[in-house]
Design brief:
The complex is a heterodimer of chains A (80) and B (614). Chain A is globular, with a radius of gyration of 11 Å. Chain A is of the alpha+beta class. In chain A, strands 4-3-2-1-5 form a five-stranded antiparallel β-sheet. Chain A contains three helices and five strands; from the N terminus they run βαβαββαβ. Chain A has a single domain, classed as SH3 type barrels. With 614 residues, chain B is an alpha/beta fold. Chain B is built from 26 helices and twelve strands. In chain B, the strands form three sheets. Chain B has a seven-stranded mixed β-sheet, with helices on both faces. Chain B has a two-stranded antiparallel sheet with strand order 7-9. The longest helix of chain B has 42 residues. Chain B starts with 8 loop residues before the first strand and ends with a helix. Classes of the chains: A alpha+beta (80), B alpha/beta (614). At the A-B interface, helix 1, strand 2, helix 2, strand 3 and strand 4 of A face helix 3, helix 12 and strand 12 of B. Strand 4 of chain A pairs antiparallel with strand 12 of chain B.
Chain lengths: 80, 614
């Protein structure tokens, strides 16, 4: 499943970041920021009114992401 | 003995955002900092100097924070270019000092490994060691040093003498460049190997972060907290600044009176007192508010709250085509749009940035307050609504609200009818919470204050003189019966303007006052005072003006002028800053055109409504 579907507080493991198109700079940046295979990730909070923004914790860092950005991150609930 | 000890060493501080690099830079260079711009881009260039215990001079360049050499913004592009030696106006650093947050080596070390691939001498500064210790993080410094192949020192930038180890390391011989990993290496895996070998971390996050974020990021509680913080900030800014503002105004008036008393009447005295002192004085009066607002913004920024506020607001701002990052520049614009527009540099996406610059003038800036105060005082009855809330205060609040809603509406229209937006990312780090460090906040405040005074002082001074000229010449002949200003260029222009302004209820006096009023918004009050030939300082003028205009103008005219001031770009300094930040006269032209158009339409509607009500 992808990160944007994770429920608050559930821990998961990052599998991969999928690029939407060939030069997807956002996907590249997500990988550089630590969304890499094996890294623990969880949702810390959802934004107001419709949860279009998500605050996530990956490794030791917290980031604010839009739903579309989080959707690029594929996670798995196994092996947590 | 080092031959090179006599020459200066050029180092660059480089690291991820939020590693405490700025605090370290301040610790190293103190007040010996120079802030300018990189040629061709609106990216800040910060350079400082320090002298080592051995007497050697070190030039320190504080490079913009970057997550990687794959630049995603103009800021990061500068860091990349300077490190690669690609900038012709910047010498490649002799040594890179990689500043990392010791509490988050998992993220920060990756960039160190990436930079190691450049082949430059480097050393690592483990910053925020105090926070690391508090969290029980144990780092085997020497082991890390061996594994990385470069010197590793511990620093606590916020502590006096906290950079001692770094200074000692800089006094040593230049280290050999570290062995680089191959270009295709998996840097994250390499970082993990380093951490497994040399670092132990008891918990994944700090308890403070969890505890605070539980409320601050909560969709409902978080919004309430934000509203309270904003309200407190505005209350504080407007009430606490008042005594300082009064003091400055008294000083300006005293200076004006001094020259009036000691210089013979004539052009020079008029230029000095009515042009220069009055013009620059009107801006200086707002300095306390601007400083106080910046103080709050800096503290909120240092604490880590502002990115969280941007997180909460992003959804709403996105609906109108702005990004959450526009929050800080627009917030600053409530004091003055000039520093607000300069703050848009933090918005990476060019179209987002441009849009924020275009709507910033719609935020009700402090300069509008004297005008609003005068007009509300004259035309809005001093009643209470529902027996509780003062009508006048309510109207003022309403004007603020109209400004904000207009900005959102304009942004929405541009988004709707503009060409494709492209993928503007939010993707923002929420740094760990920390206490703002007083020294860093004060240095930051001094920096912003000096930039404001220098830039604005130059423009406002020039414009004040120009407009003084228009309002003073030609001088009327002895048998002229009206006021001097009626005979001047400004007077003629004002009366010519009447054709366009009669439909919105402006009489010729208002039209004439609008011309010197172009220097800055609050000058309208003294402009009107000049036209109605009232003397004394601004407060005295306002006190006499209010009943005068209440008696002479219709309700429609009063309301129309209020509505005009919500939108009209009566501030050439703002336009000058727009020109500087966008590099385009076209943008200035568009700002002028759309703001005047909105102002005219709003004034027209207000005039008709006023006519109906009276």
């Amino acid at each position: 499943m992808n990160l944007s579907l994770l429920k608050r507080g559930t821990r998961a493991i990052v599998e991969a970041v999928e690029s939407i198109h060939a030069t997807d700079a956002i996907a590249q940046r997500l990988r550089e920021l630590g969304f890499v295979r094996g890294e623990p990730v969880s949702v810390v909070a959802f934004g107001p009114l419709g949860a279009d923004t998500i605050a996530v914790q990956v490794g030791f860092t917290r980031f604010a992401l839009r739903r579309s950005e989080a959707a690029r991150v594929r996670v798995s609930l196994q092996g947590v | 003995m080092n031959n090179a000890a006599s020459s200066s060493l050029h180092i660059a501080l480089v690291g991820n955002p939020n590693c405490g690099k700025t605090a370290l830079f301040n610790r190293l260079t103190g007040s010996r900092q120079k802030v300018a711009n990189y040629a061709g881009v609106t990216v800040e260039r910060k350079e400082g100097a320090l002298r080592l215990p051995s007497g050697r001079l070190v030039r320190v360049l504080d490079l913009p924070g970057a997550y990687s050499l794959n630049a995603a913004s103009p800021d990061e592009a500068i860091t990349r270019d300077v490190c690669l030696g690609k900038r012709t106006d910047e010498q490649r650093p002799d040594l890179l000092v990689c500043v990392v947050d010791a509490t988050n080596l998992r993220l920060h070390l990756r960039f160190v490994l990436e930079l190691a691939q450049l082949g430059l001498p480097m050393l690592v500064s483990l910053n925020m060691m105090d926070a690391a210790e508090r969290r029980g993080i144990r780092i085997e410094r020497e082991k890390l040093q061996t594994l990385l192949g470069m010197p590793v020192v511990e620093t606590i930038a916020i502590r006096k003498n906290g950079a001692g180890a770094l200074l000692d390391a800089l006094d040593e011989k230049l280290p050999a460049p570290p062995t680089a990993l191959p270009p295709e290496a998996d840097l994250h895996a390499a970082v993990q190997a380093l951490l497994d070998a040399a670092v132990s971390v008891p918990r994944r996050t700090a308890e403070i972060d969890d505890a605070l974020d539980r409320w601050v990021l909560h969709p409902v509680a978080g919004m309430l907290i934000l509203a309270v913080v904003m309200f407190l900030m505005f209350q504080a800014v407007f009430s606490w600044a008042a005594p300082f503002q009064d003091a400055i105004e008294a000083g300006v008036t005293a200076t004006g009176n001094f020259f009036s008393a000691h210089l013979p009447a004539g052009i020079l005295r008029s230029l000095l007192v009515d042009g220069i002192i009055a013009g620059t004085g009107s801006v200086l009066v707002f300095l306390p508010q601007i400083l106080l607002l910046f103080l709050f913004i800096l503290c909120l920024e240092e604490s880590g709250y502002l990115p969280r506020a941007a997180f909460l607001l992003d959804r709403f701002m996105l609906a109108s085509g702005l990004s959450g990052r526009a929050f800080i520049p627009l917030l600053s614009s409530f004091a003055c749009a000039i520093p607000g527009i300069m703050a848009t540099r933090s918005i990476q996406h060019p179209r987002d940035r441009l849009l924020t610059i275009m709507v910033a003038p719609l935020m009700t800036c402090s300069a509008r307050l004297p005008v609003y105060a005068l007009l509300i005082g004259a035309f809005v009855p001093n009643r209470k609504v529902l027996g509780l809330i003062g009508l006048q205060g309510l109207v003022l609040f309403g004007l603020y609200l109209i400004g904000i809603l207009s900005a959102l509406a304009v942004a929405w229209i541009v988004k709707r009818f503009g060409s494709g937006h492209g993928d503007a990312a939010l993707l923002m780090e929420l740094p760990s919470w920390r206490l703002p460090n007083p020294r860093d906040v004060l240095i930051g405040l001094a920096e912003r204050a000096s930039i404001f005074i220098k830039r604005v002082g130059g423009i406002i001074l020039a414009l004040s003189v120009l407009l003084w000229f228009l309002a003073s010449f030609p001088t009327p002949p002895a048998d002229w019966h009206g006021t001097a200003i009626e005979y001047s260029f400004a007077g003629h222009i004002g009366r010519a303007m009447q054709i366009a302004f009669a439909p919105i209820g402006f009489n010729w006096q208002i039209c004439v006052a609008l011309i010197p009023g172009l220097a800055a918004r609050e000058v309208a009050v003294s402009g009107l005072a000049t036209v109605y030939a009232i003397g004394g300082g601004q407060d005295a003028a306002a006190a006499q003006l209010a009943p005068l205009i209440a008696a002479q103008w219709s309700l429609g005219t009063g309301l129309a002028l209020i509505a005009w001031y919500i939108y009209a770009p009566q501030c050439l300094s703002t336009l000058a800053v727009i020109r500087r930040e966008t590099g385009s006269w076209r943008m200035v032209g568009i700002s002028l055109a759309y703001l005047f158009a909105l102002a005219w339409i709003a004034a027209f509607i207000a005039f008709r409504v006023g006519a109906l009500l009276s």
